[in-house]
Design a protein that fits this description.
The chain is of the alpha/beta class. About 35% of the residues lie in helices and about 25% in strands. The protein contains eleven helices and 18 strands. Strands 3, 4, 5, 6, 12, 13, 14, 15 and 16 form a nine-stranded mixed beta sheet that branches. α1 runs parallel beside α8, α1 runs parallel beside α11 and α4 packs across α11. The longest helix is centred in the N-terminal third of the chain and has 29 residues. It is globular and about 65 Å long.
Length: about 400
């Protein structure tokens, strides 16, 4: 039996590898690092089924100049990287046309509506149901002006029938007492539940994959051997070679470097995200919280409280700027005034970002035995189980349960 090689051992790659192995195929999972050590290590642990809206919207463009001039703003572009971003930003702008926005919203909603059907099945099969919390997420607003500024988000959720509940200040604090009295209004998203430890979820799935007979290889993919049929082997940087009957490229923000070796160019950028993990926060939280006007999120996860958010565009190679993480903690203390920040760790990771916010899930347009699963942005954990199911269907020739055209690699 020829091997299927999945490149990328984050939550997306591991979910795909597990689903293929579960179907009695011979699967090898390869990554430059151990499973879950990339972006999946430090994500915000949220199953964010309400957050599928395209990032490029008229309201965002109106605020962008102010954000870019503010070194502490929610979007930061390192000046030296700006010229490299021009082609990506032109596509980002094109995605903001009203007719295009509706199309992209629908593509995201299709995936989000499937999330719990696929995730519940995955967690049940693997004995990991305890890792999904029962609580949802609050979106916070200091006043009516902040709430109105986010009204477009609520209207989109209403259009697609996604659950939400608008609450006043006292009702919010009844559910989450640690919140400041300065919060006047909130929207509860009961279906935006959390994972108790996203890194441990990846490693547990990888362990189950291996228990089923799957192989994990640590190595940096440096090239491909090709024949008329497509890719026949992967060359690793240390000189090893992995034979491959089929290849799935799911290496997150690094996928574009691999696809370029196949002369298939994907407009993939990295939205560098930061978090601070606080292990002795001095408060307890049941729900995760987002404050849109302050551009941060707080989630109880991994044995403590995690603060993250904002976007930095600086490519894959620039060193981290942990001032971004510290700004987020300062803002989190506005919402959680009793939050203590003694024992902390800081982290930076690479979200794979496509200009239209819709992931690539599908076959290569140039190589008959190659498939892609990338560009999930901040919804990698949310879409993981669904991507695993859809990709396994595609690779094995089974008709997927949804129309896959919106997610094709050659749509740009």
């Amino acid at each position: 039996m020829s091997s299927i090689v999945v490149v990328g051992a984050g939550i997306i790659g591991v979910a795909i590898a597990y689903e293929l192995q579960r179907r009695d195929l011979a699967v090898t999972l390869v990554d430059r690092d151990a499973p879950g050590r990339g972006a999946s290590y430090g994500n915000m642990a949220s199953i964010a089924v309400t957050e599928f809206m395209p990032a490029s919207r008229p309201g965002i463009w109106a605020q962008m100049p102010k954000w870019l001039l503010d070194p502490e703003g929610p979007v930061r572009i390192r000046p030296g990287y700006m010229p490299k971003l021009v082609p990506w930003f032109l596509r980002f702008l094109a995605a903001s046309r009203p007719s295009k926005l509706r199309e992209l919203e629908a593509a995201g909603a299709v995936l989000c509506r499937r999330v719990y059907e696929d995730l519940d099945a995955l967690l049940k099969e693997t004995g990991l149901t305890h890792m999904l919390t029962a609580e949802g997420c609050f979106s916070l607003y200091a006043d009516e002006a902040e709430f109105k500024a986010d009204r477009e988000h609520i209207e989109i959720l209403e259009r697609f029938g996604l659950r939400h509940e608008i609450l006043g200040g006292n009702a919010i604090r009844d559910l989450e007492p640690a919140l400041t009295t300065k919060i006047g209004k909130a929207v509860l998203f009961p279906d935006n539940r959390s994972i108790t430890d996203p890194y441990r979820l990846v490693t547990a799935l990888a362990e189950t994959f291996q228990a089923l007979g799957g192989k994990v290889v640590e190595g940096d993919v440096a090239g491909f051997e090709q024949s008329e049929a497509g890719v026949s082997a992967l060359r690793l940087a240390d000189g090893r070679s992995l034979a491959a009957g089929k290849v799935v490229l799911a290496a997150g923000a690094f996928t574009a470097r691999l696809s370029a070796l196949l002369r298939e160019y994907i407009p993939l950028e990295t939205e560098r995200g930061y978090h601070t993990q606080i292990m002795e926060p001095g408060i307890s939280m049941r729900h995760s919280i987002i404050w849109p006007a302050r551009a941060f999120m707080v989630t109880p996860t991994a044995g403590g409280i995690r603060v993250g958010g904002t976007v930095e565009m600086a490519g894959l190679d620039a060193p981290p700027d942990y001032r971004r993480a510290r700004i987020l903690v300062m803002r989190a203390r506005e919402a959680l005034p009793e939050l203590k920040t003694g024992e902390v760790t800081e982290w930076m990771g690479h979200r794979p970002a496509l200009p239209d916010t819709v992931p690539v899930i599908g076959p290569s347009a140039k190589r008959g035995n190659v498939w892609y699963a990338t560009g999930h942005g901040h919804l990698g954990l949310t879409y993981a189980a669904t991507t695993g199911r859809l990709m396994a269907d595609l690779v094995t020739g089974v008709q997927p349960p949804v129309d896959m055209k919106p997610y094709r690699v050659d749509r740009f």
